[in-house]
Amino acid sequence: MPSSLEDFEKRLSKKYSRKIVILRQDMTDKFVALAVHVAAKGINRGYSMEKIVDRMVEACTRAKGHSHWHCITGRRFGFNVHHDKDYLLEFTVDNHSFLLFRTKEMCEKDEES
């Protein structure tokens, strides 16, 4: 694991007083920080996982201006998903695992381009 990722995890862990581990990252650090912020704050406030997922998808949609975001959470899980390039993140906050990804929007506007 590159030291820069370890440093990033340590900064996030210290900021939220939680153990943050980035397992797979195919998005910018800024966007990772947003997702971790939503998850850690939700856990700190005792929100249900459903509410945390809802807030994470809402935050991603607002930040990027695109829909088709998906978030899976649980204690342990495996996955095989198709996602847009630069839009996949798998991380843990303490013992809660999160998979956040975006799929390509298929709409008439995209087909016309």
UniProtKB/TrEMBL annotation:
GO terms for cellular component: dynein complex. One of its GO terms (biological process) is microtubule-based process. InterPro entries: DLC_sf (IPR037177), Dynein_light_chain_typ-1/2 (IPR001372). Pfam families: Dynein_light. It comes from Trichinella pseudospiralis (Parasitic roundworm). CDD domains: DLC-like_DYNLL1-like. This is Dynein light chain.
